Amino acid sequence: MFKRLLDKFGRTVNLNTETDSPIIPGRCFLVWDKLKRNMDFADAELALTTFDNNARIISRDRNKGGDDEAEKRHPTQKPVYLYDYIHLNFVERGQRVLDTHGGSFTHAVAAYKNNINLTIIDREESYFNSGMKNYENASSKTRLMF
Q: What Rg do the C-alpha atoms of the chain give, in angstroms?
């Protein structure tokens, strides 16, 4: 099933690498350096992508992201600014993006904000429902700019 999904999408990124990834990585790995050390959780996270680009390090404090971090909905929640960076630097206009680990749906919030065609799924119903509430709340407050 994942092979068929991946064949349908131009760009994929998996920021949840502690689970089995359906993505066969290209040469571009993204590393999110959270700029904090010796925390109770990882100092950095590795993202597998299908991008044909050089590897990149995104250095930004996990706790300085803005409104999107006001409420944690998922234990490995990523900030919207992280997905903003990925969209700006790696997604071409009109491309479709697949996120197989929706979690808190901060990726959906960023995709809405950046006018990105995103398909997002999560296998855990409770995370999916919570993520949809997060998306609906954020998208009702965000104005699209063309």
A: 15
Domains by residue range for the chain, with CATH: 2-64+73-141 (3.40.50.150)
Nearest 5°: the CA angle 87, 88, 91 is: 50
d(CA 140, CA 121): 21
CB 51 within 8 A of CB 26: yes
Q: Which two tokens stand for residue 121?
A: 């799924």
pLDDT of 36-83, one tens digit each?
888 777 888 888 777 778 889 999 887 665 544 446 666 677 888 889
Q: Do residues 103 and 131 lie in contact, with contact meaning Cβ atoms separated by under 8 Å?
A: yes
**Identity of residue 127:** Y
Coil/strand/helix, residue 131: helix
Secondary structure letter of residue 49 according to DSSP: E
